[in-house]
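Design request, tokens follow.
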């Protein structure tokens, strides 16, 4: 997931789910855990934002 975010920072959760072949709710849970651990951060709005790997 981190490599996909690094390659395409403005990737959507839906696109991540499709690329990784996992359910969208799993992507949501994983990203929540990564945000809480300080590994990733989302910048900008929900529609036009981008992910930043720290």
């Amino acid at each position: 997931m981190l490599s996909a975010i690094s390659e395409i920072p403005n990737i959507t959760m839906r696109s991540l789910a499709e690329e990784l072949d996992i359910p969208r709710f799993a992507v949501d849970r994983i990203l929540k855990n990564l945000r809480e651990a300080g590994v990733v951060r989302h910048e900008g709005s929900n529609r036009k934002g981008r992910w930043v790997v720290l």
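Comment from the thread starter after seeing the answer: thanks! DSSP finds three helices and two strands in the chain.
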